[in-house]
Amino acid sequence: MSIFAGSRKSDLKILAEELGEIVYDSHKLKDLKKMILASKEYDEECAQEWLNTIISEREENERINKEIQERRREEEINERRRKEEYDEQKQKDEMEFELQKIHFGAEDRVSNSVSNQNVDST
Known about the structure:
The protein is built from three helices and no strands.
């Protein structure tokens, strides 16, 4: 029974289907093993090769999916950083604009005050 080492239920379901068996979700792992071993199409060497291929494909798909998830996570982190930087720059620009308005307002008051003093002195 070492043929099944390292396999998951999903792997055995695929192998049983490849052997021409009808598989239901309700089948348990032990049922799948029995079904495979009892199959008319079962040949230990071929079944082992098929199962190795099935496991390799599953592992490759898992690796690819993990890489995709990691890339998405990194993209989300980078997007959040860009948004934070944008928001910080926007807030900084708004503060700078408000300071300039205050500065120009103060200059206008000083200028008006000087003009009024000049008018009063004449």
